[in-house]
Design brief:
This protein is α/β, with parallel strands linked by helices. The protein is 54% helix and 11% strand. It contains 21 helices and 14 strands. The strands form four sheets. It has a five-stranded parallel β-sheet, with helices on both faces. It has a four-stranded antiparallel β-sheet with strand order 1-2-4-3. A three-stranded antiparallel β-sheet has the order 8-9-10. The longest helix is centred in the middle third of the chain and has 24 residues. 42% of the residues are buried. This is Arginine--tRNA ligase.
Length: 558
């Protein structure tokens, strides 16, 4: 309902003022929405903005389409308050099983995320990409878009050459129950150590890269087998975090199908293309870049950037909107990619850049073998969650406590990462992430469980009759916040800022808990009890829908 009322307000203001941008803003404590359009008109008309606001209010009040709106002028500000009918309709809509699902769209979206090198397990430094990317995939699907979630699999770069060299020369046996990524990283770390101690083996890595680009069957098989083993382990970790990719796209695809050669030919025709022997690069200095954008090495082999251009052209042929999730350390190469695609007349991808998440223990590097894996992070979080659940619910069986702890752990990790806007770095805080009493995933999951418990107790008492008359301020505040859920979904799609949804659901849990505390539900009587139970059901459904979009299980008991 909030989306519909916002559109109604925009339509009225545009019709009356003639302005395209009617400058809507949050109404704060005094209104559901407000407009500052009188300020813009005051500059044009050279009139007092308060007088303009009063005139607009009078025209809106007399307009036949203003039903359900109470409009007033507070100085130059135009405030809109939505009616009791809006509140009742919002609660009714929020009880629908598909609440928040927007109409189906035909615009196809490809969203690439995670895409970590398959040289070892995902670590804490990788999973902010994973959580942001998967949450965006889920939001776009909730907004009605057909989405293809993709992982770009590096199966030929230098890091993979080092892995392949290790697999070829070290002959390690796979340990019992050892995940594929754990097995591969042992080769990668040791091969790097050997290369530091014996730099004379470095040319062997280069030779292997030349062989795979030439399509040497033995080298291709070695690279692909090594990558597949590692990717198998990475997929297990992703699944444990409730993350699924629709497609893993191999980098070598665009080398061998000719796409890379085609795009390089187009780039080479640009006046900015430069050569230094066999090396080819773009001089993008007039575009604000101070270094070369290298696409071919001096030995004639291609670099990652060349395949990446081909990959993005292929994605453009498959979708209407292409989105990449990349770390802050990829800002330069991401901007060079976008610029180059624009120069050859192709659509550049939208890029969501994020700063990194770390642990208090410090930074991590796969190459040196100094890192905390995502698996270890989840295991430790589950261990701490199990301790908390066991204290809170000692009467539950071990299997049920384990199940709840697993859901709490995944929720704690995902929420603690996504709640911070992507452009800010963050440190994963164990205590804060698992705090059942403060604004964390367990806190939100507990609000949902509480709503389920209230409804179960009401059912045991004979249920309730649907009633939509609300008058208590805690009821109205909760209902109006519930109404904003579809609008928040739409806003995240437009702005590509998933933390807005995390903030929304945290505030929803806050408002539900305040309502529960100050507006008794089961102890109320008659129509008041029925109305509040109806609102509890709307809260339960909205919390569950929002948590699902965040990739977090909505527990019915904690």
């Amino acid at each position: 309902m909030y989306r519909e009322y916002i559109h109604k307000v925009e339509h009225l203001l545009r019709e009356i003022t003639g302005e395209d941008d009617v400058l809507l803003t949050d109404g704060g404590d005094h209104a559901d929405i407000a407009s500052t359009v009188a300020f813009a008109l005051a500059k044009k008309e050279r009139k007092n903005p308060a007088a303009i606001a009063a005139d607009i209010v009078a025209k809106i009040a007399a307009h036949p389409d203003s039903q359900g709106l109470t409009v007033s002028a507070v100085g130059p500000y135009i405030n809109f308050v939505f009616s009791g009918e809006y509140v009742a309709d919002s609660v009714r809509a929020a009880r629908h099983p598909d609440y928040g699902q927007l109409p189906a769209r035909t615009e196809r979206v490809i969203l690439e995320h995670t895409s970590a090198n398959p040289n070892g397990p995902l670590h804490v430094g990788h999973i902010r990409n994973t959580v942001i990317g998967d949450t965006l995939v889920r939001v776009f699907r909730k907004a009605g878009y057909p989405v293809d979630a993709q992982y770009y699999l590096n199966d030929m770069g230098r890091q993979i050459a080092i892995v392949a060299w290790g697999v070829k020369h070290l002959h390690y046996d796979r340990l019992p129950n050892e995940k594929g990524d754990e097995f591969i990283v042992r080769h990668y770390v040791e091969a790097n150590k050997i290369a530091r101690e014996q730099p004379e083996i470095e040319p062997e890595f280069d030779e292997m890269m030349e062989k795979i680009e030439a399509g040497d069957p033995e080298t291709v098989r070695l690279f692909h087998d090594s990558v597949d083993i590692c990717a198998e382990g990475i997929k297990e970790t992703l699944a444990a975090m409730n993350v699924h990719h629709d497609r893993f796209v191999r980098e070598t695809t665009f080398l061998w199908n000719g796409d890379m050669q085609k795009v390089l030919a187009r780039v080479e025709a640009l006046p900015e293309a430069q050569h230094d022997g066999q090396m080819m690069y773009l001089d993008l200095s007039d575009k604000g870049f101070g270094n070369r954008y290298v696409l071919r090495r001096s030995n004639g082999t291609s670099v990652y950037a060349a395949r990446d251009l081909a990959f993005h052209l292929w994605k453009n042929s498959q979708c209407d909107r292409s989105i990449d999730v990349l770390g802050a350390d990829h800002k330069l190469i991401g901007a060079q990619l976008q610029t180059t695609l624009s120069m050859i007349g192709e659509r550049p991808p939208e890029i969501v850049h994020f700063e990194f998440v770390s642990l208090p223990e410090g930074s991590m590097t796969t190459r040196g073998g100094v890192f905390i894996t995502a698996d270890e992070l989840l295991a430790e979080t589950k261990k701490r969650a199990l301790e908390e659940v066991s204290v809170r619910r000692p009467e539950l069986g071990e299997a049920e406590r384990e199940r709840i702890a697993s859901a709490v752990a995944v929720g704690a990790v995902r929420y603690d990462i996504v709640k911070v806007s992507a452009e800010k770095s963050t440190v994963f805080d164990w205590k804060e992430a698992l705090d059942f009493e403060r604004q964390s995933a367990p806190y939100i999951q507990y609000a949902h469980a509480r709503a389920c418990s209230i409804l179960e107790r009401a059912k045991a008492d004979g249920g309730f009759t649907e009633n939509y008359s609300f008058s208590d301020p805690y009821e109205i505040a909760l209902a109006k916040h519930i109404a904003q859920f579809p609008y928040v979904i739409e806003k995240v799609v437009v702005e590509l800022r998933p933390h807005l949804l995390a903030t929304y659901v945290r505030d929803l849990a806050d408002l539900f808990n305040s309502f529960y505390r100050f507006a008794p539900v089961l102890k109320a009587e008659g129509g008041v009890r029925d109305a509040r139970l109806t609102l509890v059901d709307a809260s339960r459904n909205t919390l569950a829908a929002a948590l699902d979009v965040l990739g977090i299980e909505a527990l019915e008991s904690m």
